[in-house]
Amino acid sequence: MVREFSAGGVVVRRMSGEWHIAAIEPQKEGAATLRPISRTRRQPPRKVVLALPKGLVDEGEKPEEAAIREVREETGITATLVTKLTDIRYVYVRSWGDRERVFKIVSFYLLRYQSGRIDDVTPEMRVEVRRALWLPLEEAPAKLAYSGERQVVRKAIDYIQAHPEV
C-alpha cells in the first residue's frame, strides 16, 4: 500500500469580535467540462463542499512548513504557526490511474492569520480551489464536509478556549 503525507492548517482570525477560520471549496473532478445550463430545464443546485486547506508535504519540507505553504497557495493568506493540533489517518483508493489503495496521514496545525486577502489565489490554483472564504469558527464543525476535519476544528476550538491569548 502506498503512503502519503500531507499537512494542513486551521487558520484563525478574529473579526468583529468573533473567531473565523479559512476554509476552501475544492473544485470537483470534471468541473472544467460542465454542460451549459439548459434554458428549458433547471439544474439541481450543487452541493457545496467545504474543507480545510491542505496538501502533500514536498521532499525536504517539514510538515508545518507545508501547512503554511498550502494555506498560502489555496487561500491567498499568510499565517504563522501556533501549535500542532493532531494527525488524521485514513485509507482511500485513487480515483485516477492505478486505482491503488493509499494510506494517508495528514498533520494539522493551528495557524494565526498574519496578512493577505482571502481567495486571492493564482489562476493555476483555481484547478484545485473553487473559492476560499472565512467561516465562523463555531459554525465550522457543522459546515465542513469531512468528519476528520470537523474533529480537527473541535480541537482548535478547545485550544483557543484554553489559550485565549491566541
Structural overview:
By secondary structure, this protein is an alpha+beta fold. The protein has one domain (2-27, 48-162): Nucleoside Triphosphate Pyrophosphohydrolase (Alpha-Beta Complex). Mean pLDDT is 91; it is low at 30-39. The chain has 3 helices and 6 strands. Strands 1, 2, 3, 4, 5 and 6 form a 6-stranded mixed β-sheet that branches. The longest helix has 16 residues, at 147-162. The protein has helices spanning 63-75, 140-143, 147-162, and strands at 2-15, 18-26, 54-56, 77-93, 101-116, 129-136.
**Fraction in beta strands:** 35-45%
> How would you classify the quaternary structure?
single chain
Portion of residues in helices? 10-25%
CATH class: Alpha Beta
What is the end-to-end distance? Answer: 39 Å
- The name of the CATH topology is Nucleoside Triphosphate Pyrophosphohydrolase
Instruction: Give the total of domains.
Output: 1
Mean pLDDT: 91
SSE arrangement, N to C:
EEEHEEEHH
Q: Residue ranges: pLDDT <50 for 5 or more in a row?
A: 30-39
The shape, in one word, is: globular
Helix-strand category: alpha+beta
As a whole number of angstroms, the C-alpha radius of gyration is 17 Å
